[in-house]
Amino acid sequence: MILDEVEVARVTRLSPSFVRIELAGACLAEFGVDGPLYDQRIKLVLPFVPGGSLPSFAGADESWWASWQARPEEERGHLRTYTVRAVAGVGADTRLVVDIVVHGDADGEPGPGCAWAARAEVGDRVVLMAPRRGSAYGGIEFAPPAPAGRLLLVGDETTVPAICAILEQLPADAVGAAFLEVPTAADVLPVAHPRGVEVSWVWRDGADHGSALHPAVLAHLGVGAVPVEESLEVDPDLWETPSYSSSGETVGAAGAAGAHDRGGLYAWIAGESGMVTGLRRVLVRDLGVDRRQVAFMGYWRRGVAMKS
Ligand SMILES: Cc1cc2nc3c(=O)[nH]c(=O)nc-3n(C[C@H](O)[C@H](O)[C@H](O)COP(=O)(O)OP(=O)(O)OC[C@H]3O[C@@H](n4cnc5c(N)ncnc54)[C@H](O)[C@@H]3O)c2cc1C
Predict the structure, then answer these.
(1) How confident is the model at residue 259 (pLDDT cuts 50, 70, 90)?
(2) How far apart are CA 129 and CA 93, in angstroms?
(3) pTM of the predicted model, to two decimals?
């Protein structure tokens, strides 16, 4: 994998809630995966304090994680997960485009990732962890079973980079629907998509996360209003895909008796863990969709900082 310093080459404020950052560096000449990037995740190590120094990973080997974790927190910096929105340029001029959500105090104290993006300037440096062409890295969860059926892509603003990247890389004959919830109407971004995939943006205008998305998705699935259960137990690290289960469920097993495929539906649902948990309950418990056809991913949890 690539584990190296890169530099901010361009900063663009896309909308009230999105900052686009282009990362450049000689190491990016080796960036790449076999096949489409889809929702490829990467990690950034940010300085512990704004303008502070970065940990060195020079000479890092397989044990880099343990030795990095062993360093004092103020030397380690902050590790945060993002998505490759796009790749620009080629060779040594390759740049990774990353769209980062910036939010105000109304949503809680901004974390170091949000604060870093909000003040990022050309020349700022971060450590990047990303796939190196020709070596295994992982980090792509979008994997509809073949033959492709009907897609359902759902997420809040933190998943807008992933859903937009997936939409742009789908085959032209893909069919399905995408629902994206953003904070305000001004955060709706242009995205190219196959004609057969209907893209719906909803905005919550100060209401709770998921409050616009939940009813839109239920209506699409033909389900009547299901109240969001306040008592619903939420795993902040929720990650349920056909190949991994944070709750320890047996993965890859046949669906429960009676589980059905709803016309070959493949659902990719990510964002705030409480919102994802609510939709998971509807799809798996109420509709009985086969677990092998769904990916539910908690990208963040309200009130919980990402571990680093
Ligand atoms: C696979 C994956 C891909 C991701 N891709 C992207 C991406 O491309 N762009 C992106 O912006 N995010 C993305 N995220 C989400 C991002 O990693 C989290 O939002 C992360 O918590 C941001 O770190 P932070 O330092 O800003 O906040 P943290 O220090 O983690 O949290 C501080 C506080 O801010 C709150 N918080 C965190 N994120 C938000 C938010 N978006 N809105 C409101 N409150 C928030 C937390 O609940 C907490 O109370 C991705 C996450 C995953 C797992």
Answers:
(1) low
(2) 18
(3) 0.95
